[in-house]
């Protein structure tokens, strides 16, 4: 008896070690890739924006709910304000999602097939290259699988602790992006479709989860009721009245999702052709588990397309980042693919070779993006932030407290300036409600405008007549022997101790 018990225990321990090795390799590979490929670039706007919000710890922002900004706040209370730390956060976030998928896969598979359901996600760009920009979409890579895992456990156990955990996880997902309503609808559908639904809904668990969810959401909901501009307004700005254009966008979304599954499809086709005896194939899950897997694997995609068509929302493939986390698991279960240790080692070897090739090419690709200003790689946000901070300190003799101006450079200053100033977004308290007249009077304002940004230069006109200082800069980024193109700036300093006009001359559109 002791032998029969100890063998599965050792196997389970080996599976866990394999998972931990996979997660560690994922974090190491993609953090290193960021440093090598994105090194010549400064942080993308979404990440700098999250950092700027994180400094204020708001209950909401004009664009998104606040949870992922809270995550950034907590992360940088532990790590230095450096690019590598942000890239590490992106990789860890994706790894948490992979771990949750492994937990879900344990309901259907064991041994090598279970780990393959996680390893094959490395073939999906959603979990790799598209996860590197930490924003309201990519944070869902971890939150959606965690919600699904906790829902399945809560459905099985119907215990109080599980219900509370589910309610909190569901709130965290919704407080990152309202789009998370899609995964919550899938949870409801899975519960209703399960043969044991009566037992679940007769227990306190779903109602406790709902109460915890509502309590966690309440502060943000109250904030939204009093906010001048909130995420619902931002969502409305993404709709379009032209039905043909919406259908075209949905078609491109579907085609893009299919194309991004090409590498995964090839790996699955190899496993299918490899074949094995029926005894090697995964067992057929119960009716309830089959229905749940179908809903969670296909439901988010179908709901996304349906919502886009019904509500005329323009969707892009970035929306798909969190919705295909169970694609490999579903394929293995539905096709009953046999994955033994040899196949798993082959897949891991191919993934490792692919990762090493990416790392070897990354520095050259990064230099190319800088030389040709691909994806704004040549924008000297760090250099401008440091130059403006030094000039402010020299002229004013105090830390730089508030910045505004052309979006990329105002946001970049919040991260790259050693003073980490607050962004007075679009010169409008509606977009930056933490800025009021008194805070502007105490801190003054540094405005960074691209020389060809007419909107930004127009906004600086309202500070004429105040005690200001104006200068012009021409800055070019140089890294790894490559020099990017030069950018020209107009910088206006409004010294502290003055009453500044609050309302913008012309509100910047979303």
What this model shows, in words?
By secondary structure, the chain is of the alpha/beta class. The chain has 20 helices and five strands. Helix 18 (407-416) links the parallel strand 1 and strand 2 (422-423). Helix 1 runs parallel beside helix 5 (112-119), helix 1 packs parallel to helix 16 (341-372) and helix 6 (140-157) packs antiparallel against helix 7 (160-174). The longest helix has 36 residues, at 2-37.
Which features does this protein show?
510 residues; disordered N terminus; 20 helices; alpha/beta; 5-stranded mixed sheet
Give the SSE layout.
Layout lengths: L1 H36 L7 H12 L10 H10 L6 H23 L6 H8 L20 H18 L2 H15 L6 H13 L3 H5 L3 H22 L4 H7 L5 H17 L2 H13 L12 H25 L15 H9 L5 H32 L8 H16 L5 E4 L1 H10 L5 E2 L13 H7 L1 E6 L3 H7 L7 E12 L2 E13 L16
Please tell me how large the radius of gyration is. Answer: 25 Å
> Roughly what fraction of the amino acids lie in strands?
5-15%
Which class of secondary structure composition applies to the elements?
alpha/beta
Largest sheet, in brief, is: 5 strands, mixed
Contiguous helical run count: 20
Going across the biggest sheet, name each strand in turn. 2-1-3-5-4
Q: Please give the alpha-carbon distance between the first and last residues.
A: 66 Å
The gross shape turns out to be globular
Low-confidence stretches: 1-11
**String of helices and strands:** HHHHHHHHHHHHHHHHHEHEHEHEE
Helix content bin = 55-70%
Mean pLDDT metric: 93
């Amino acid at each position: 008896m002791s032998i029969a018990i100890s063998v599965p225990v050792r196997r389970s321990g080996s599976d866990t070690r394999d998972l931990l090795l996979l997660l560690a390799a994922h974090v190491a590979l993609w953090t290193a890739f960021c440093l090598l490929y994105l090194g010549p670039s400064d942080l993308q706007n979404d990440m700098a924006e999250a950092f700027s919000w994180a400094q204020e710890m708001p209950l909401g922002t004009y664009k998104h709910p606040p949870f992922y900004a809270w995550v950034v706040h907590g992360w940088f209370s532990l790590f230095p304000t450096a690019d590598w730390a942000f890239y590490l956060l992106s990789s860890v976030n994706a790894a948490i999602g992979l771990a949750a998928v492994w937990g879900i896969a344990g309901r259907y598979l064991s041994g090598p097939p279970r780990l393959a359901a996680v390893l094959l996600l490395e073939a999906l760009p959603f979990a790799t290259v598209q996860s590197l920009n930490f924003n309201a979409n990519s944070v869902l890579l971890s939150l959606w699988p965690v919600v699904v895992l906790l829902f399945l456990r809560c459905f099985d156990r119907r215990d109080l602790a599980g219900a509370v955990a589910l309610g909190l996880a569901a709130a965290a997902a919704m407080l990152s992006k309202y789009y998370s309503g899609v995964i919550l609808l899938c949870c409801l559908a899975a519960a209703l479709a399960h043969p044991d639904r009566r037992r679940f809904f007769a227990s306190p668990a779903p109602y406790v989860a709902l109460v915890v969810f509502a309590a966690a959401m309440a502060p943000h909901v109250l904030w939204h009721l009093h906010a001048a501009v909130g995420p619902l307004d931002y969502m409305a700005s993404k709709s379009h009245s032209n039905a043909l254009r919406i259908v075209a966008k949905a078609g491109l979304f579907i085609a893009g999702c299919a194309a991004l599954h090409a590498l995964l499809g090839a790996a699955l086709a190899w496993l299918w052709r490899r074949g094995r005896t029926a005894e090697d194939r995964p067992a057929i899950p119960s009716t309830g588990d089959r229905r749940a897997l179908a809903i969670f694997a296909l439901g988010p995609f179908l709901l996304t397309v349906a919502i886009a068509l019904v509500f005329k929302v323009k969707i892009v493939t970035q929306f798909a980042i969190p919705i295909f986390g169970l694609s490999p698991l579903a394929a293995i279960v539905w096709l009953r693919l046999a994955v033994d240790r040899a196949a798993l080692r082959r897949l891991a070897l191919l993934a490792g070779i692919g990762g090493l090739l990416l790392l070897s090419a990354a520095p050259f690709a990064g230099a190319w993006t800088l030389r040709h200003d691909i994806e704004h790689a040549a924008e000297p946000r760090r250099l401008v932030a440091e130059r403006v901070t030094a000039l402010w300190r020299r002229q004013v003799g105090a830390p730089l407290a508030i910045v505004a101006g052309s979006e990329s450079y105002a946001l970049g200053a919040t991260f790259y300036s050693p003073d980490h100033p607050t962004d007075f977004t679009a010169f409008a308290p509606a977009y930056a409600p933490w800025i009021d007249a008194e805070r502007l009077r105490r801190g003054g304002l540094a405005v960074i405008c691209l020389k060809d940004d007419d909107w930004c230069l127009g906004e600086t006109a309202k500070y004429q007549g105040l005690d200001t200082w104006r200068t012009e800069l021409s800055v070019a980024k140089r890294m790894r022997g490559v020099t990017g193109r030069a950018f020209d700036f107009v910088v206006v300093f409004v010294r502290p101790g003055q009453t500044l006009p609050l309302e913008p001359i012309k509100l910047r559109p979303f």
